[in-house]
Amino acid sequence: MGGVTSSMAAKFAFFPPNPPSYKILKDQPTGLLLLDPFPHRENVDVWKLPTRKGNEIVAVYIRYPMATSTLLYSHGNAADVGQMYELFIELSIHLRVNLLGYDYSGYGQSTGKPSEHNTYADIEAAYKCLEEKYGAKQEEIILYGQSVGSGPTLDLAARLPRLRAVVLHSPILSGLRVMYPVKRTYWFDIYKNIDKIPYVKCPVLVIHGTSDDVVDFSHGKQLWELCQEKYEPLWLKGGNHCDLELFPEYIRHLKKFVTTVERSPSRRNGSRKSTDRMEQSRRSTDCFEAPRRSTDRREKPRKSVDRLDKSRPQGYKFNNIEKLEKLKISIDQVERSRRSVEFYEKPRRSIDQQFEKARKSVDWLDRIRAG
Question: Where residue 15 sits, what CATH number does that domain have?
Answer without folding.
Answer: 3.40.50.1820
